[in-house]
Amino acid sequence: MTKSITTRVTAISNRTEPLLGSGGGGAAQLGKVWRWGSDNMLPYALSLLARRSVAHRRIINDKADYIAGKGVVCDEHVALLDHLVGSANGRGETMRSVIARLAMDEAMFGNAFMEVVTDEKHSFLSFYHIDASKCRLASDSPSVVIHHNWSSFNAADAKTLPLYPRFDAFGDGTLRAVVHYKDYEPMFSHYGVAPYVAGLDAAAIVYKTDRWNISRIDNSFQLSGVMMLDGVVDSEDEADRLVRTAEEKFGGHPGQVLFVLRGDKSSDSTSRFIPIDTASDGDWQSLHSQAESDLVVAHSWFRSLSGLDYASGFSTDRILQEYEVALNTVILPKQEQLLEPMRAIIFEVLGIDASSLEIVNCPPMRSKPQYMRVWEARKADGLEYDETDPEQQRFLAELVRSAGTSKA
To answer: What is the rounded distance in angstroms from the CA atom of residue 191 to the CA atom of residue 49?
Structure first.
């Protein structure tokens, strides 16, 4: 597990030197990959940061949920396509489940990997999500090296899959390939860069301010300060032992109290505590709030869609308005990015037109009745509708007649 966030999250590099994994035979073939980060461990650091920073994790979760939508629909008359939507692989996962995991990796790493499985006869097609943190791009061929733990690489436990559109045959009779989704970033040729890259420091600040509050609770909200201990000792070892004993009994959270052993025989020889009161609570709160705001901006996201403004009031109009902006600027483009390779592969392997494949999007709340006619919904949303349609005119007439009867 990565211990330091600060040193890890800044380890983004476009170094072109391949990393040669340690191990026995086959290491040169399977371990020669392009570094993902300066130490090849950037996904691990980003994962750790997402697990520790509250607002950062909420934004990632919400973006992935909105991009995955409420489900995937297609032309029901195309039986094979409809079956693929309901069962995308041998594990029985739906296409929506696969897309949700891909969206999570995209939001967290700026990269996502999907395995495509078929056979020479193209009798079936399966889509599998691959954990992006386990994937590295091979430097000597257009392929992906997959290993369960890159901190202790072992060539015997790694496997290599070709990058789509190239398929390789395997011993079980299948043809396999990997689709690599990545967010474009200038100067980065091999891996994409997380969309919130400019907000890494903000995410770390949110985590560290929360940790600071925890340390205050652990220390029972006692003031930090310097404890002057009076005592004459014969050796440095004895002095260290005396200070350690005092820390264990009276220090609270490590680092809150500095113990100083004074061995001189001055007139002022009593032990005393000198508090350090910086009155910085307001500064810490402002720093935390500013970091949250910066983090939302870095994610290209919206506060009301991540629950950050609920404390100041619940504005239905604002939530719906920001959802519309997010839908057109973030959600729909990402959905198209994920679906485009799937449609192409379905047509290539199964020979089926998958243009009807779409993700269902629903707003986080409703501003109109749950049941409406299509033209009513279009009118309520400010979209075009046919006012001269006979069915619509008949329905309007019935509404007017009903209103007149109720008034009478």
So the answer is: 19
The residue type at 327:
L
Q: Which of 282, 286, 287, 214 minimizes the C-alpha distance to 252? A: 214
Q: Which is higher by pLDDT, 329 or 234? A: 329
Alpha carbon distance 368, 377 (integer Å): 8
Phi, psi torsion values for 112, nearest 5 degrees? -150, 150
pTM over 0.90: no
Instruction: Give CA torsion, residues 144, 145, 147, 151, to 10 deg.
Output: -110
Return the half-sphere exposure (C-beta side, CA atoms, 13 A cut-off) of residue 151. Answer: 7
Token representation of residue 301: 């996201």
φ, ψ for residue 73, nearest 5 deg: -125, 160
Tell me the three state secondary structure of residue 249.
helix
Q: In the numeric block, which tokens belong to residue 407?
A: 């008034």
Tokens of 232: 């004459």
Output the pLDDT for position 25: 32
Which pairing describes strands 257-262 and 135-137: parallel, antiparallel, or unpaired? unpaired
pLDDT per residue over 49-100, tens digit each? 999 888 899 999 999 999 999 999 999 899 999 999 999 999 999 999 999 9
Tokens 């789509």 found at: 164
Q: Give φ, ψ of 168 to 5 degrees.
A: -115, 145
pLDDT tens, position by position, 349-388: 999 999 999 999 988 876 665 556 666 666 666 667 776 6
Structure tokens, 215: 């340390």
Reported in sequence order, the residue ranges of 65-187 that DSSP labels E, i.e. its strands, are: 71-73, 111-119, 126-130, 135-137, 143-146, 159-162, 168-169, 174-182
